[in-house]
Amino acid sequence: EGWVNLKWKGGSVTSEYTIIAKQLIAQQRATEALTWLEKVSDSKKIYNGYKETYVRALAGIGELKKAQEEYFTLFKESLDADLYKDVMAQIRPEDKASFKEKTLQTVYQGSQHTYGTLHFLIYSENYDEASTFIRLHINDMSICVAWAFDNMVLLLQEIDPLAATLLYRKMIAYVLEKEETENYRYASNYVMMCAVLATKVNDWEMFTPHEVYVSAIREIYESNEQFRSVYMSTREELISCMEECSREQRAHSCKILHL
Prior knowledge:
The structure is a single chain. The protein has 16 helices and no strands. The longest helix is centred in the middle third of the chain and has 18 residues. The radius of gyration is 24 Å and the shape is elongated.
């Protein structure tokens, strides 16, 4: 409160009023937030996420129809996953399905890049849709796109082992095709993760089963001594970490990690 008073009495530039509004919204004080947003001059509304903050404030005071109108106007440009979740949280339960459907239609129709679409689906926690999208677009998906979601594959592993495997394979391909020796350790880890995930995939659908995929990888690493060395080292390190497991668990782990 003291900081807000200082900003007000000090005649701060009005773009900073958006920052004040954000803090008020975080404290469930959307009505006060709107008061501050009304003070922002038109020339300053391009700063500090004014439009997104305005939508959140409208949703916070229950102006859901207007909030959704403003949301969809803005969303076409931003594909903002956090804004989607914030508005979704305020919508009445009976309206959530239609709001989600319209949002997904906007995403699929508006985004010209697989990265933008997949980024929204994952970070908005629409995991089923993300898994379906990966299946449909993995062949024409840029390797760099798959690599960009390295930190999210761990989450997908628990939800859809096949979708996670497809992303891992893309990342492995990137490293081996580019012969990026500094990333061979990552590729080795990904190969082993694919082996682990293979035990959880009941239906490979149209995609190459793990055993066939491994055969192709074996041909590559047999002609690439450096990758083979890094892979075997990584494999041995992992197996050594399993020393406290039961004999049956160790045998199973060694089997699925064997190339």
